[in-house]
Amino acid sequence: MSVDDLLRNHGLKKTTTRKQVLDIYLNTDHALAVADVEEALGDGVDRVTLYRTMGTFEEKGLLHKVYDDDGKLKFSLCSSDCSSHQHHDNHLHFHCRKCGKTTCIENVAVPEVEGLEGFDIQDVYMVANGTCKDCIQAA
Amino acid sequence: MSVDDLLRNHGLKKTTTRKQVLDIYLNTDHALAVADVEEALGDGVDRVTLYRTMGTFEEKGLLHKVYDDDGKLKFSLCSSDCSSHQHHDNHLHFHCRKCGKTTCIENVAVPEVEGLEGFDIQDVYMVANGTCKDCIQAA
DNA sequence: TCCTTAATGAAACATTGTTGCATTTAACTT
DNA sequence: AAGTTAAATGCAACAATGTTTCATTAAGGA
Ligand SMILES: [Mn+2]
Ligand SMILES: [Mn+2]
Ligand SMILES: [Zn+2]
Ligand SMILES: [Zn+2]
After folding, report:
1. CATH of the domain at A100
2. In CA terms, which of A46, A72, B51, B91 is 20 to 30 Å from B61?
3. How confident is the model at residue B51 (pLDDT cuts 50, 70, 90)?
4. A35 to chain B nearest CA, in Å?
5. Residue B73 lies in domain
6. What domain count does chain A have?
7. Alpha-carbon distance B14 to A139, whole Å?
8. Where are the alpha helices (DSSP H) in B2-132?
């Protein structure tokens, strides 16, 4: 889907910054932090605007949060059925300790949690840490 | 096990601050951030010392890191078989969005990850978010 | 008790994220 | 196409979290 369509479908105004940010995510295969996007845009856009842009994208279901080993916040594109009402990104994530990249493993679902009687589970986050394919091959 | 024994068994000097910090963790059933410990100690101990203390405890296998929903870093007591060589805290964690407490669910193991051929998985972190027992009862 | 090394305190700094307010711009109305 | 309005942006100031350097203090062994 195009950048313009994605923005319209999620009820967002079509601004220059939003189109640029979304374009970056569409052309990257791993999660990006605010600082990464800031660097990719090479100045010209205020840091605060990026924080607000990513926040809005997360609220509206365009991006979902990803945390790596060190609690560093990154964002990844959501699957097509995420909206402002609900996220459906219950897949595994992989964080490579060599290259630092965090990737969505869309085809591995987070397993159901058993044995937690008395708790109300809303969602489960799961991240595997280790060495990614690329870094193994490069070694 | 006593505070003194724990410190000795992990090869750590017995200082006032370390004993106080460890005592707090032994008497709390949920994970605590550096700021939480600082507040519990009520001044007198420098913030930097606490960061270093918790860092050392983590290295030596006395505490393990816990991240909640917002990437906030907390620490929890490790199971008895953690050491500076390796952590064995592969259990589920629960983060309550009402009270904010993060708890170790020692009796629920993190499931093995299937379907990740080509990756080298070192460890897996898993946290369930929702409402805890206490907050459900209080409602 | 003395000595050595590790632990601590203090200050300065870096990074990440938030808030208030003035200005600009997108989308809608006319 | 111009005008209107609410949302988005830029800027400055602030807050929270974490790190680094260096002088001082304290722990544990000799
Ligand atoms: Mn994902
Ligand atoms: Mn735990
Ligand atoms: Zn890698
Ligand atoms: Zn609760």
Report:
1. 1.10.10.10
2. A72
3. very high
4. 16
5. 3-138
6. 1
7. 42
8. 3-9, 16-26, 34-41, 47-60
